[in-house]
Specification:
Length: about 120
């Protein structure tokens, strides 16, 4: 009794309709559980990246303050950030993943600084 590959294939019963229905039902339940958890991950990732940029800008502003005895004196926030780049405190201008712009606010006593994003606000203070 020699069976060929084709005859082996024909001998298999395959799946019943109920087995397929149960499988599809289980897969749909798994998808229903996973989708709400995956939906917000892009927003969380961009927020974490923006927070990292804000921390980097603030840290380099403090580094600049300690070295130069004052914060960058550019007229606009972009000028101040560009000043950090041209003087080697930042390699590139950090950009918000959602396209927000970073605002640098120097306190009235000129001894502290805050950084916030136009899209995300102040993160990681
Ligand atoms: Zn942002």
């Amino acid at each position: 009794m020699k069976k060929t590959l084709c005859s082996l294939w024909r001998d298999q019963r395959g799946f019943t309709l109920i087995e397929l229905a149960v499988t599809i039902f289980v897969i749909s339940i798994l998808i229903a559980i996973a989708l709400p958890n995956l939906r917000g991950t892009g927003d969380k990732a961009s927020k974490v990246a923006c927070e990292g940029n804000q921390r980097l800008i603030r840290a380099q502003l403090e580094n600049y303050f300690l070295t130069e005895h004052g914060y960058p004196t550019g007229l606009t926030d972009t000028d101040r950030l560009q000043q950090l780049v041209t003087q080697g405190y930042l390699q590139t201008l950090p950009t918000c993943p959602l396209g927000g712009t970073y605002h640098i606010t120097i306190a009235a006593d000129k001894n502290s600084v805050t950084v916030d994003c136009s899209k995300h606000g102040a993160l990681g203070l």
